[in-house]
Every structure is written in structure tokens, then in C-alpha cells.
């Protein structure tokens, strides 16, 4: 792990010591040191007289591991242990700006709307006569309100009731409409941009309800930010002087609306560092826009791109575990975690990444000696040992591809599955265990499955990654550790059918 300036290669040093007043994009594969470079850059800025209060660190979501790992790196650096950097979610940051300037948002977005006033009746408090208070009627401006996801769903349900062809549809149709509207707005596509879409009229009426009631949903916040900073030069100057240095982590996970809002706030001439990698995008399922990496030269004309090409994270040893059914898989993994503890691995060094919330509950209860979390939250973290259960084809397909298609996100399944699995495997520095079930039950139906085909592509990319790796490979000879010598070893050339016979151990 890189911990000091002397460990930096040429491109990493260029990013850490970048002092030009223009945006820079830092990109590179998993293990190239992007998060470590961010930590060292923060240290370098503080050491060179930058006030920590003028530094802003932005993350897509705080529950991901990138921000957590950055904080851990900063805690271990001299001179930074007592400094608390301002780390914010992009949406939280933009929402706070809009909340402070609702009157301007009202003027810019809603002032010319037809239904912008309401009649209020009240008693005149200044009437000192003994007579009854006189009722006074006046016309006042409605107040702009920010709404949450529950209110959004209620509005969409009310819109559906106005369409006879959708009124009797099940909850899945409503969910698809909800997802589509959110996806379109996340990409800054409004009704006038999608007139040919089959749900154009539902989208149009949803936007009309928001406008008539002066409501802003989550995506409207970014549009409001863009309008605010376009119209008010004093606001642009105030925020750019308040945060002279900005670092945005996992840029590929931001929606297009969030990316455009960041450009509106900080402009094309600012100490802004965007860190991300298109191939590590996980949030595309949740409306992320990884293509924003490709659009950087257009969004930030004059900005510079720094590519990290040398991989420093060790390539782990990968082993396959086959179980006949789900309960047998749990027993095998329980025994595996116990064996790892006997070998000296601590709880924080062993990660179990689950695919679903139900798996998360079960494995958290059965594997208390391992760090269990959802695969969504693997990004940015690092463990000596990673365990990925449920790697059979049927389970992976149902969890990702089928579920996405049900929600109307056709075409994302294969790409999203690959990125999820690859992200999970690359969190390991020593060992990876991939377990799968030959027979899986779904209600009254039992399905015979095989090892997921996505692993073929992942293995090929691992081989390419190993060629540029600057750390000695972790691979050990078969049977060198206790508990594995009786399980059998297969080389990479064997077929999936041969792999399925026993637990396969291979050095990538």
C-alpha cells in the first residue's frame, strides 16, 4: 500500500502535486492507488498552507467503502489525525444549497406558472375595536417544497389513476413507471425531450403536478442548482472562494444531473479533482452515468486527464467451493471462516459479500467472525480474504439480470453483473473463495445450476491485470495450507464441468 510521497510513480505524483487552476480527471483500474492518491493530495495541500476549511470532499453515497477507506488512510498520515475534512454526499451538498435559496429557486423555476398563488383567510390582529375581528382575505405565494421518495410515489400513483389503461395494472407496472421517470430525470431528460416514449403523457402529467404545487423532487434539486449558479454571479463567487479545492470520489457513480450540477457550481477553472474509472461503475443500475468519464474533455474544456496504469494491489489466489444445496453451502463457509481464524486472520481481514438483503441477514447471523456486507458496499474497501457465495448461474441471473428486466432496465444485466463480481474479487489481497450451489430451491421448484459464466470474463481480466502488477503474486502451491490439501486442485485450463467436481484452487 502506498503510504508516502516516495512510493509514488510518475502519474501518481503528477496527480498528488497538481497545482494548476483547472480541473483534472484521475482514472485507473482497481488497485492503481486512486484513493491513496486522494489521501496524499489532501496531506500535500495541508502541508503547503491550504486551510482544511477550504477543502471539500464529495462522495456519491456515504455508505460505500470509498469514503470510509479514505478516512482510514488519513487517520494514519502524520499531521492529519486531528483534521476533520468536510466530506459530503453530492446530493446532500446540492440540496443544502437549494434549501438556503428557495426564494430564488421559486423565481427562476416557478414564477411564471399559472397556479402560483393561494387565497388565505385570517383575522386582523391590529383591530382594537370591541367588535368581532374582521376576516381579511389576501393572495399569498405558495412556498417551494422539497419532496422525498414516498411523496414521489404517491404523485405517480395519482397520475396513473387518470389513465384508464393503467389504473388496474399491478404494482410492477407502477414500479417500472417510477423507475423510468427517475432514470430520465437523472439523465436530465424532460417530457419535451422524450415525446416519442410510450410513457410520455404520464411523465408530462407528473411534471405538471410538481409545477402546479411548487414541488421539487430529488432530481429537480440539480436543475435548481444549475439555474441558481447560472443566474447569480455572487453565488458562484461565494462557493468557489469558500471551497477552493474540491475532490470528488467515484465520479462514475454520479448521475448525469449530479455531474452537470458540479460543473455549474465550480466551473471549468477551479482546483477540482474528479476520481473514477468507467469500468468500476456499479451505480449504473441506480441511474449512475459512467459515460461522464468520456465526456470530461467536453464538460471541462482545458482540463487534464491523468491515467494510473500500474497496479499495486496483489493478485489473490482464487478457490472454488461447490455445495449440493444452500444449507450445505452455509455449513462449508462456516467451517471455512473458522479455519481462517485458526490460521490467524482477524474478523476485519475477512469479508463476505452478499448479493441480496436476505443473504445479508442470514450470513451475518451464521458468520459472526467475518465482516459481512452487501456487494454494493464493496467499493473502496480492502481485505486479505474475500468470500463470494452464490456464484452459480441460476442465482446470479435471477438476482441481477431478471430483477433488472422486471424493473424495466433491459440491457444492463450482463454488464452490471460483471462489474459487481469483478469489484468484489478485486477487494482481496491474498485469497478469494467463490462458492456455488448445484441445486437451488425457489419455492416448490428445484433448479440444477452450474458455475456462473461471468467468471470466465473476470478471470481473463485478472490475467491481464496481473501482467502489470508490481507486487509479487500471492499464489501458493496446492495443499500448502491446512484444510485445503484434501479438496483437490484444478488448473485454469480445465472446463467448468471438471471444476464442478470438487473445490478448485488456482493461482491467477
Q: What do we call the CATH homologous superfamily of the largest domain? A: P-loop containing nucleotide triphosphate hydrolases
Q: Look at the structure and give the CATH class of the largest domain.
A: Alpha Beta
Strands ordered across the widest β-sheet: 3-2-8-9-1-10
The first-to-last residue Cα distance is 20 Å
Which oligomeric form is depicted? single chain
Tell me the overall shape: globular
Q: Would you identify the CATH architecture of the largest domain?
A: 3-Layer(aba) Sandwich
Low-confidence stretches: 118-133, 468-508
Largest sheet: 6 strands, parallel
Looking at the structure, the CATH topology of the largest domain is Rossmann fold
Counted beta strands: 18
Determine the structural class based on helices, strands and strand pairing: alpha/beta
Residues in β-strands, percent = 15-25%
Q: How would you explain this protein's 3D organization?
A:
The chain is α/β, with parallel strands linked by helices and 508 residues long. It folds into 3 domains: 5-93 and 221-308, P-loop containing nucleotide triphosphate hydrolases (Rossmann fold); 112-218, no CATH class; 317-507, 3-Layer(aba) Sandwich (Rossmann fold), CATH 3.40.50.300. Helices cover 41% and strands 18% of the residues. It contains 19 helices and 18 strands. It has helices at 10-16, 34-47, 65-75, 90-100, 102-110, 149-160, 164-167, 171-186, 200-212, 220-231, 233-242, 256-266, 296-299, 326-342, 357-366, 393-406, 413-425, 454-467, 496-499; strands at residues 24-28, 55-59, 86-89, 117-123, 135-141, 145-146, 215-216, 245-248, 271-275, 304-308, 317-323, 350-354, 371-374, 383-388, 428-437, 439-442, 445-448, 505-507. It has a 6-stranded parallel sheet. Strand 8 (245-248), helix 12 and strand 9 (271-275) form a beta-alpha-beta unit. Helix 5 crosses helix 10 (220-231). The protein is globular, with a radius of gyration of 27 Å. Residues 118-133 and 468-508 have low confidence and may be disordered.
Amino acid at each position: 500500500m502506498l503510504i508516502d510521497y516516495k512510493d509514488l510513480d510518475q502519474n501518481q505524483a503528477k496527480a498528488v502535486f497538481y497545482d494548476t487552476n483547472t480541473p483534472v480527471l484521475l482514472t485507473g483500474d482497481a488497485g492503481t492507488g486512486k484513493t491513496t492518491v486522494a489521501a496524499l493530495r489532501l496531506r500535500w495541500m495541508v502541508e503547503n498552507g491550504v486551510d482544511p476549511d477550504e477543502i471539500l470532499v464529495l462522495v456519491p453515497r456515504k455508505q460505500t467503502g470509498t469514503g470510509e477507506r479514505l478516512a482510514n488512510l488519513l487517520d494514519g498520515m502524520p499531521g492529519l489525525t486531528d483534521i476533520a475534512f468536510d466530506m459530503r454526499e453530492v446530493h446532500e451538498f446540492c440540496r443544502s444549497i437549494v434549501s438556503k435559496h428557495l426564494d430564488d429557486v421559486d423565481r427562476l423555476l416557478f414564477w411564471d406558472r399559472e397556479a402560483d398563488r393561494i387565497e388565505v383567510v385570517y383575522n386582523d390582529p391590529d383591530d382594537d375595536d370591541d367588535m368581532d375581528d374582521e376576516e381579511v382575505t389576501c393572495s399569498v405565494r405558495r412556498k417551494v417544497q422539497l419532496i422525498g421518495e414516498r411523496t414521489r410515489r404517491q404523485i405517480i400513483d395519482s397520475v396513473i389513476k387518470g389513465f384508464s389503461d393503467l389504473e388496474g395494472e399491478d404494482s410492477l407496472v407502477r414500479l417500472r413507471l417510477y423507475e423510468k421517470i427517475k432514470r430520465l430525470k437523472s439523465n436530465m431528460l424532460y417530457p419535451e425531450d422524450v415525446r416519442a416514449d410510450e410513457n410520455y403523457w404520464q411523465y408530462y402529467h407528473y411534471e405538471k403536478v410538481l409545477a402546479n404545487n411548487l414541488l421539487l423532487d430529488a432530481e429537480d434539486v440539480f436543475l435548481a442548482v444549475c439555474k441558481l449558479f447560472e443566474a447569480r454571479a455572487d453565488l458562484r463567487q461565494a462557493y468557489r472562494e469558500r471551497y477552493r479545492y474540491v475532490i470528488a470520489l467515484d465520479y462514475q457513480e454520479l448521475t448525469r444531473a449530479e455531474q452537470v450540477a458540479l460543473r455549474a457550481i465550480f466551473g471549468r477553472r477551479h482546483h477540482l479533482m474528479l476520481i473514477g474509472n468507467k469500468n468500476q461503475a456499479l451505480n449504473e443500475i441506480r441511474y449512475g452515468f459512467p459515460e461522464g468519464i468520456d465526456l470530461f474533455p467536453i464538460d471541462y474544456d482545458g482540463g487534464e486527464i491523468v491515467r494510473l496504469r500500474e497496479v499495486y494491489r496483489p493478485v489473490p489466489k482464487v478457490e472454488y467451493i461447490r455445495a449440493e444445496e444452500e444449507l450445505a453451502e452455509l455449513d462449508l463457509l462456516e467451517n471455512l471462516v473458522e479455519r481462517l481464524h485458526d490460521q490467524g486472520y482477524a474478523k476485519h481481514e475477512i469479508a463476505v459479500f452478499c448479493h441480496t438483503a436476505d443473504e445479508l441477514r442470514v450470513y451475518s447471523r451464521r458468520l459472526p467472525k467475518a465482516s459481512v456486507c452487501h456487494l454494493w458496499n464493496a467499493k473502496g474497501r480492502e481485505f486479505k480474504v474475500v468470500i463470494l457465495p452464490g456464484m452459480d448461474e441460476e442465482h446470479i441471473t435471477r438476482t441481477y439480470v431478471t430483477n433488472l428486466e422486471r424493473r424495466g432496465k433491459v440491457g444492463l444485466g450482463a454488464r452490471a453483473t460483471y462489474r459487481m463480481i469483478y469489484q468484489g474479487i478485486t477487494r482481496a489481497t491474498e485469497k478469494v473463495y467463490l462458492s456455488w450451489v448445484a441445486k437451488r430451491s425457489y419455492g416448490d421448484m428445484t433448479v440444477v445450476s452450474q458455475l456462473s459464466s461471468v467468471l470466465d470474463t473476470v478471470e481473463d481480466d485478472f490475467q491481464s491485470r496481473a501482467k502489470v502488477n508490481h507486487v509479487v503474486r500471492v499464489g501458493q502451491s496446492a495443499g500448502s495450507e491446512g484444510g485445503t490439501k484434501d479438496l483437490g486442485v484444478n488448473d485454469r485450463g480445465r472446463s467448468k464441468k471438471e471444476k464442478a467436481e470438487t473445490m478448485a484452487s488456482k493461482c491467477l
